[in-house]
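go over both lines:
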Amino acid sequence: MLLEQFLHETRYQSIAHLYFDEVKLTILDRAKKEHTSFQSFDLTKDIKSAPLADILFIEIGDGNKDKLKLLVSLFAKRKPIIAYLFADDVENRLLLKFALHFGITDVLPLKNEENLLFSIFSKSPNKLDDKLFTFQKIELEKKIEHFFPFLVFQGETLTYANAKAKMLYETNDLMALQTKINRDEELCEALKEDGDAQGSIVIETASAEKEIYLCVIKSFPQSSEKIVTLINYEPESEPKNCSSIMNRFDFVDKLKDRLAQQSVTQTPISLIFINISNLDKLSKTFTSTTLYEAFKNLMLQLFKLKEEGQDLIQWSPNLYILMGEKETFEHACDQTRYIQQELISATANEKITPIILSSAFQIEMDDLNEVIDYIEKINTKNLLSHDIEKIKYYELDYLDNVIEEQEQISYLMHNCVNNKIPIKLLNIYKGLCINTNSAIIKIAQDSYQMSCENLQGYAMQLEGETVLQAPNFPKDIKAEISLVDIKRSLVIIKNLKFLASSANNRQHTRVQTSVRTPVLIKYAHRSSAQGEIIDISVNSIAMKVTKSFREEEMMNQYVRLNFSLPCEEGENGYVIMDIEAKVTYIGHTDKYTKIVVALENLPKPYDDYLLRYMYSRQKELISEIRRATKAYN
């Protein structure tokens, strides 16, 4: 990990720089200034006063026996999480033996050079990352073990139970524990379902006492995993604002009754939607246990924020609903804004940042099916402008009414650093997508220094811009390139702005042809136009023509295309493509008209010709960009 990440990850740990007589590694001074618990100590003074820190950087120099004896007494008192030794001779056998015995993270040369820091704090995972991750994992497991009974199922099969769960069911054997769980028919039925669930179960202890537990099941369909949490509680003492989450089916039943009552009482019904729009991205990026912890905290926040008399409903894995009555639509809008701000503030420093899209909807119709149709459109983000015109609906985008765009982007970028959220850079090289991993190295006032791979650096150099993508970004971010240093694998970007739509919403890879490729377009029986191909994919072709077309003249019409493609089997190394396609886009610029056509079920042999050309052209482009960056390797 990089130095900035290390300082953040260890902000609650103590660090000590130990040396004999004289400090040689002044390169650590920056870290000392930025970390609140980083101190230096001369080991030639009273060893009993030496700090027992979590992380040690030790200058041992010649590594003689006297120095090693002092370190033995130090390590006997407390074993650090991470320890680096800096020596004149890193091959010193006595020193290496000591390092092996005490689990030293690494033995490095005692040189006051920047390269030494880079060997410890690098963008690639190394020993430091492994040690710190292992420690954090063990600490988290210890906390979970002593917090509540916790069970993990693969399908309906129990695969893990923590100490609390084993104590509750009074057995250390997983098979025996599974047998006891199988006696609870309701829990077994809930485990068979695909979605999340919540309810109360009764567990009988050895003393024949029956205890009520709140059972929360979090489902992860992609891995077929389910995590079951059991929380001991007394239903009669539970506050009203901490009631259980209502499932979709119970909600529909309750809504049906409320709509029937509304037709008589004219009592307004308001729904507030909390949509986790990046759930799919988060599921691919983080483990199921990490996600579970994050969403458990989010639910606790929602329980705190809902008003008395409101029900909390889970409509789908990503959509939660608050249903309330008697309040005006304006009140619902105010509450929506408040909830949005509070949830964003509550998750600002969490490892997982859910992208929350909040909205409010006042029900004025009495047709249940119509209401459900609107809810599902909101759930799938398919609510169109003509739908909104018919209903009372208010929507907030992520970070709307919270901060300005530049502050939003700054917040998101800092969040990536603090929580090690992966970032991808996207560029297009002659139609080919170059999309590789990156990390933020340094944040300045108006720019960001980031790591980049050679291929990406070359593509950015040509385009002069790039697009940033991350699981916590509500939209892709476009940035100008200030500097690219391919040899050092870094780029400096500036002027970051949100893109209105996804930068890589293309469904298929497109490539530009290696040479200018003329195309003849035949349309409307006997009309034709000359143009040339911009780029091509297995499903579409983009062309430019000098002739101007009106949309109604060609849009959604079938046209005939005639052009040639390189092919070894063809005469003179080319084949003639004579194919039918449907016009899906017409756009105008000052110099030409752009036309995009969809290729639907190409007949043989044209489909084979196109597939072969796409494959060979992609290989050409990859080889071309690799040759261009070879000098920087």
